[in-house]
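Appendix B. Chain record.
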Amino acid sequence: MSTKIYLIEGLPGSGKTTTAEALTRLLQEQQTDTHLHIEGDLNHPADYESIAYLTLSEWTDFQSKYASLDVLRFAEMFNDYVLVSYRQWQSKQDVPEAALTFLQARDIYELPFELYQSLIFKKWEAFVTQALTTDTTYVFECCFLQNPLTMGLIKYDLPEETLRAYIERITTIIAPLQPVLVYVDQTDVEKSFRKALNERPTEWADGFVSYYTEQAYGMNHSLSGVEGTIVILQVRQALERQLLEMLPFRIEVFGNEDFSVEARQVWLKQLIQSTVRSTSLSES
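Structure tokens predicted for this chain:
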């Protein structure tokens, strides 16, 4: 079976998004039905973006309070909980600030780690089941390593063995898709992050630094400001490199220090060719 998913990972500012977009274009040029899902995608098939988790009692109270608003079509009901896509709801109508604040506080990425983790596993399992029924190839940015580590390492400062177990479980779930992971690497974390700070809006920079340093890891290690954020990013990179060594599927590291469009294009074309070649050999 051919590769059905490419996972694009790396630190913020490393060039993940542009690499994912370039890979998608190249795959589509080869007449491959390819779907790209980048960070912040409200319709991500294997992750949750701006989704609130409500118990049935919370949902009943919420519906009663906002009965005049059409929230039901933005909700998924399961056995004992309800998921509400609050950003999608907000994009379609005016949502009272109080309702939005209530849902944001119950975002899946604000849940206790065990509950968050169980929801992510279910989402991955449902995605893999669906993906195996189609000829579509998927390109996912940041949802395999970055998002789990944002929760487990940065938000909750959990032990490394807990984080490894989490990644191992996802690895097992996605194995039928013959994944290939592209790690966009930067040897100088400080240089690449400061470059991102200079290029991106001040709101992004302030929000990123605030989040990284005001969660459990930053607080427990007395880290603050841009300098503290860089330290945390260096710790995260070291852990990601350790995790790459344990993964049982194909890993390719792309050194993107020069941010060269031409070099990236050549590298990705070689990746696709080698992926097709190795698939053909395994099926012969």
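Further analysis of this model is presented in Appendix C.
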